[in-house]
Design a protein that fits this description.
The protein is built from two helices and 18 strands. With about 350 residues, the protein is α+β, with helices and mostly antiparallel strands. Strands 1, 2, 3, 4, 6, 7, 10, 11 and 12 form a nine-stranded mixed sheet that branches. Strands 14-13-15-18 form a four-stranded antiparallel sheet, covered by helices on one side. Strand 8 and strand 9 form a beta hairpin. The protein is elongated, with a radius of gyration of 26 Å. The relative contact order is 0.18.
Length: about 350
């Protein structure tokens, strides 16, 4: 009987050590997963925000011609860079933000993907989404096709939205055709070039004009531009909320265990290229106001994906003035706040 009692005590001690070791291992793994998610999301967000509004060597005050439909004359004026009615083509707004319940951003989210989580924000930036390439010949006219190296396949395809830029101007257009063409060489004979056309006509959205208003020379930069949105929705893995990234309608889950996203936008109200005040997205009424944004402040609540990795957390968390919590699921939570400058709005 004594031996049985001693054995039971030993087994209880061993079981307690096992539980303690398992809990420590679970907690360590949860902390590691959360830290990796923080590192990746921080780097991904920083790159996208800092590149928003990139125009090559053209300064922010330089002229940009947007040839995407609709025609600016039908939009209340013949401005060279005009306010586009469609969320997907408002490239004059480098950054834009919405509450997740707002319907105005939903054209950027393809059908069949999870809806944004109520009470969270949506962050949208517009800028380059592919590496730049360069033209190899001068344009003969402002409506001529653009010549690039004849790489097979060509890096720009029909239907893509592209910006061409040099230090004197820029233009945004949709590629109407992309092919390798045979041309006469100045020294005699023929050779191949990549031919990028920007004809007016049908398409989505299509070009209202093929006139880029500038004869861009050899060495002008060409890069695909697009719309990138970040939002919170349920994970496709069934592990709870996650951070999603949508690039021109292609939505992908990039980090599980991210429960909340709140954003404030730094506005330069006196023209010194420094944020004077930070406001929420619904406080910016028009394009002129969004064009004064020079920085973005992002707060994310990282929770990991493992329940009971820690004790029930009785704390509430502050995300830029929005309070969430407490929680009882035992996930290990941390608020990370990033302040990111729009480098293409700075001198």
């Amino acid at each position: 009987m004594i031996a049985l009692v001693i054995g039971l005590l030993l087994l209880a001690g061993i079981y307690r050590i096992f539980l303690s070791t398992s809990r420590a291992a679970e907690t360590t793994q949860a902390l590691s997963d959360r830290q990796e998610a923080i590192r990746y999301v921080g780097a991904r967000l920083a790159e996208d925000v800092r590149m928003a509004g990139f125009r090559g060597c053209l300064s922010d005050t330089g002229e940009v011609r947007n040839t995407l439909n609709p025609n600016p004359a039908s939009s209340g004026g013949a401005r060279t860079e005009f306010t586009h009615a469609d969320f997907r083509y408002r490239y004059e707004r480098y950054v834009e933000g919405f509450d997740a319940s707002a319907s105005s951003w939903l054209p950027g989210l393809p059908s069949g993907f999870p809806s944004p989580r109520a009470g969270t924000d949506v962050l949208t930036v517009r800028g380059p989404i592919d590496a730049e390439i360069f033209t190899v010949r001068d344009m003969a006219t402002t409506t001529a096709s653009l010549a690039i190296n004849p790489i097979n396949p060509l890096p720009l395809a029909a239907g893509q939205v592209v910006m061409i830029s040099d230090c004197g101007g820029a233009a945004i257009f949709q590629v109407s055709a992309s092919n390798i063409a045979t041309v006469a060489l100045s020294g005699g004979g023929t050779g191949n070039i990549g031919n990028i056309a920007h004809a007016a006509g049908s398409g989505t959205p299509g070009n209202w004009s093929d006139d880029l208003a500038r004869e861009f020379g050899a060495g002008a930069q060409l890069f695909r531009v697009g719309v990138i949105s970040y939002y919170i929705a349920n994970s496709a893995q069934g592990s709870g909320p996650a951070l999603w990234r949508v690039v021109d309608g292609d939505a992908r889950e990039i980090a599980a265990g991210v429960e909340n996203l709140q954003v404030m936008y730094g506005e330069d109200s006196d023209g010194d290229e420094v944020a004077d005040t930070y406001r929420r997205g619904d406080q910016f009424a028009d394009t002129a106001a969004w064009r004064r944004v020079v920085a973005v402040r992002v707060a994310l609540l990282f929770a990991g994906t493992r329940d009971r990795a820690g004790l029930a957390d009785s704390r509430s968390f502050d995300l830029l003035g929005v309070t969430v919590g407490p929680f009882s699921d035992g996930r290990l939570r941390r608020v990370v706040t990033l302040t990111l400058a729009l480098r293409n709005r700075l001198p």
